[in-house]
Specification:
The complex is a heterotrimer. By secondary structure, chain B is an alpha+beta fold. In chain B, 22% of the residues lie in helices and 38% in strands. In chain B, a hairpin with a 4-residue loop joins strand 6 and strand 7. Helices cover 72% and strands 0% of the residues of chain C. Chain C has 7 helices and no strands. Classes of the chains: A alpha+beta, B alpha+beta, C mainly alpha. The interface between B and C is medium-sized, with 24 and 20 residues. Strand 9 of chain A pairs parallel with strand 8 of chain B.
């Protein structure tokens, strides 16, 4: 008996050591492999009682076919969760492919009673259609679909199909009764608020933050940058404008409490067999991708929805007509990048836009009023 | 216990050596770090300035595969089996503020770094 | 091959596979997918000491093959192979070196070797030496997981000895060898004392 203990006896200390390590391993693994949600992820919260310049509350949401990163200084987990929920709610309301959405029902049945958010978008769609002379047209959906941009199966539709489809493209055919919130579309007309939804959502989010006492926030909805106030230290937000050729940003615009939204042909496009590039920004008059010499248009203004409306329509207008439009309205600023790589900015940006210094050979022209 | 002493000493030496090596590399000059997230989970954190020989990483999940190329100071997705190929078109990134995103695969690559005067808060695209 | 030996091998292989699968659920220890902690080496160490090198190799290869089939990734197979084989070779070296009460040392050595093996394979697979940056971290991790696996193996071995594995294929032989040498020394001493110088 004695001998057996001598050989097999292991000091109790060692046994305890092993148990502790085992527990440590389990505990470490448990905390490290915490599961994340399906759409909303990685939420960090700021210490609410502490200084506003501490780490902000952030969250990342996959919605509306893009990735959205929200940053709110002084916010907390609950606020980020509410923001995330609003995004998901709007996405399911406005999606053209989700059978439960109001837009899907509207497109399928030709008429629907809509909730306040959708109603607001319908009214905005009509308003901006009028403002841009029809160059922003929310009824362009059938054309976009014909080119395959909704499924990824790109194709060039034949001229006759396009002519037929163009007959249905007219924002003026949308009838909206503000009292009953009923939207009616004629036969064959379909709407898609994809060109306005992100801007609208950004405005909703910033208003949510402001209502909760946040004074410094930034949301980046798939490249749409919208800011609330200035950065916590009072300085302006530095927003880069993407270089269409893909190497980073070609310039920085400093903004306080403004939205910066860019429309670029280089974002979504396909190349035909003959090498022609077809992108997803269409001219509602022709049904073809808008080729006016511009590669990208960035709009800097107060609201997301206005910026969205303008970025698409000014792209379709081309540099000259867009410059005239700006001179006429002057309630926004813009950065245009032409196919030659030259940059044009409206005079209001003279002091807040700088070309990236890695850039040589690009000319910068200021558009005067 | 005495019998175990030489082994304990040997192992303690190894532990000290490795800890020293780790501390040394941690305090070495920091460059930009690229973080690769999928579904919000951090998969990789790569110190781009420490990359000597370029290499590729294949990231596969049940939605598909992305091939990420890592070179000194920059990173990009060179191949993917997603239908829109936006992530591949995006090209190289070497600055904080602009992530490469592959939406269908829920993959995000972003560079985090100190806020130098050259960096931006967001990229409008 | 007798039934008992076969059954033991099968049980140990199953245990190794279960540990392998559970281990695959743990989060990444370094930013290279497929690099594992090496907890299944508990079984490798036990098999080496209880059944001997030949059987241990058989269990190891079985576990690597089926473990990789279950996980479905080629990198897992390669890393397991590299790490497992290097660990095996280290155990082969150590089993004569240590006593039954120092099995934990082989655990540590095996784990360190396992991680070095994994990184070496990773470097070959990715065709770059950049991954060696993780070596200090992995060796450190190896020390701790090795301690854990080594101690587990030690308890396991020492308890199994009483249900049919009286003759250890390693460790104990070292002790026996050591005590044999000791006995000879004592014999020599006594022989000298008695004035008899016999050449053995």
């Amino acid at each position: 008996m004695q001998k057996r203990n001598q050989i097999t006896g292991v000091s109790s200390g060692v046994k305890i050591a092993v148990l502790v390590m085992l527990l440590g391993l389990m505990a470490g693994c448990g905390s490290a492999s915490g599961a994340s949600g399906t759409s909303s992820t990685s939420t960090m919260s700021a210490d609410v009682s502490s200084d506003i310049t501490s780490t902000p509350a952030t969250t990342t949401v996959f919605a509306m076919d893009t990735v959205m990163q929200l940053t709110a200084y002084g916010g907390d987990d609950a606020l980020m969760q509410e923001a995330s929920d609003r995004i998901t709610a709007l996405d399911s309301l406005l999606s053209t492919t989700n059978p439960d959405s109001e837009i899907y029902a509207l497109n399928a049945q030709g008429t629907a009673t809509v909730s306040p958010d959708t109603a607001a978008l319908v009214e905005d769609g009509i308003k901006y259609g009028q403002l841009t002379g029809g160059l922003l047209d929310v009824t362009i959906y059938p054309v976009v679909r014909a080119w395959g941009f909704t499924t990824g199966e790109y194709q060039i539709p034949d001229a006759d199909t396009l002519t037929e489809l163009l007959k249905t493209v007219d924002y003026r055919s949308i009838s909206f009764d503000a009292d009953t919130s009923v939207v009616t579309l004629p036969e064959g007309v379909m709407v898609d608020f994809g060109s306005l939804a992100k801007g609208y959502t950004g405005d909703v989010l910033l208003k949510l933050f402001a209502d909760n006492g946040i004074t410094s926030a930034m949301v980046n909805l798939g490249g749409n940058v919208q800011t609330l106030g200035a950065k916590p230290d009072g300085s302006a937000w530095r927003v880069g404008i993407e270089d269409p050729s893909g190497d980073d940003y070609l310039g920085i615009v400093s903004v306080v409490n403004k939205t910066v939204i860019t429309s670029g042909g280089y974002e979504r496009y396909f190349t035909g067999d003959d090498g022609t590039v077809y992108w997803h920004i269409f001219d509602p008059r022709t049904g073809y991708p808008a080729k006016t010499g511009l590669l990208s248009v960035s709009i800097i203004t107060d609201t997301g929805i206005y910026a969205e409306a303008l970025s698409t329509s000014l792209f379709v207008m081309g540099l000259d007509q867009a410059s005239d439009f700006w001179r006429e309205h002057r309630d926004f600023e813009a950065v245009f990048i032409t196919e030659d790589g030259d940059v044009y900015i409206t005079s209001g940006l003279e002091n807040s836009f700088t070309l990236s210094d890695t850039d040589t050979g690009r000319t910068l022209t200021v558009i005067q009023p | 216990m005495r019998r175990h002493l030489p082994w304990i000493v040997l192992i303690a030496c190894i532990v000290l050596l490795c800890s020293a090596a780790l501390l040394l590399s941690a305090t070495a000059a920091h460059g930009s770090v690229a973080n690769i997230y999928q579904d919000g989970q951090l998969l990789y954190s790569i110190d781009l300035s420490a990359v000597e020989t370029p290499y590729t990483i294949d990231i596969t999940d049940d939605t598909g595969t992305n091939t990420v190329s890592v070179e000194t100071g920059r990173i990009c997705i060179t191949d993917a089996d997603c239908p829109d190929q936006i992530c591949v078109h995006q090209g190289w990134i070497d600055q904080p503020g602009q992530p490469i995103v592959c939406l269908p695969h829920h993959l995000i690559i972003e560079i985090v770094g100190d806020t130098s005067s050259d960096s931006i808060d967001g990229l409008s695209q | 091959m007798n039934t008992k030996r076969l059954t033991t091998m099968a049980l140990l292989t199953a245990a190794a596979l279960i540990i392998h699968v559970i281990e695959a659920q743990l989060p990444l220890i370094v930013p290279i997918p497929g690099i594992k902690l090496g907890l299944s080496n508990i079984v490798t160490v036990c098999a080496m000491f209880l059944l001997g090198p030949a059987d241990a190799l058989g269990i190891l290869l079985c576990r690597i093959f089926w473990g990789s089939v279950f996980s479905g990734q080629m990198t897992v197979f390669l890393y397991s192979l590299g790490g497992g084989l290097l660990c095996y070779l280290t155990l082969l070296l150590f089993r004569r070196l240590v006593g039954a009460r120092e099995v934990w040392v082989t655990g540590v050595a095996g784990a360190i070797a396992h991680n070095i093996g994994q990184i070496a394979v990773a470097a070959a697979v990715m065709k770059t030496t950049v991954v060696f940056w993780y070596l200090p971290a992995l060796i450190l991790i190896g020390v701790f997981t090795g301690l854990f696996t080594g101690l587990c193996s030690q308890f396991f071995i020492q308890h199994l000895r009483h249900i049919g594995f009286e003759n250890l294929k390693g460790g104990e032989q070292c002790n026996r060898l050591a005590s044999k040498i000791q006995k000879n020394k004592i014999k020599q001493k006594y022989k000298e004392k008695d004035g008899i110088n016999e050449i053995q």
